[in-house]
C-alpha cells in the first residue's frame, strides 16, 4: 500500500478543476476516471472517483 506519485501537467489551465485539494480515499485506480474527466468524457459509474473536482 505504497503511495503512487503522479503529476498532472496542464499548461492551459483555466480553472476547469480545483487544483488545490484532491479528493479523499484515492488510489492508483482513480487515475482512469481522472484522465477521462480531464479529457471531457464521463467515466463509467463502476470506475473509482476522480482525483480532482471539476467546476
Explain what the structure shows.
The chain is low in regular secondary structure and 55 residues long. The chain contains one helix and no strands. The longest helix has 8 residues. The mean pLDDT is 87.
Unreliably modeled segments: none
Mean pLDDT figure: 87
From the structure provided, what is the oligomeric state, counting identical versus distinct chains?
Answer: single chain
Number of strands: 0
Question: Which percent band covers the strand fraction?
Answer: under 5%
Order of helices and strands: H
Helicity, as a percent range: 10-25%
Structural class: little secondary structure
Largest sheet: none
Helix count equals 1
C-alpha-based Rg, rounded: 11 Å
Distance between the termini: 30 Å
State the shape. Answer: globular
Short description:
The protein has about 55 residues and is low in regular secondary structure. The protein is about 15% helix and about 0% strand.
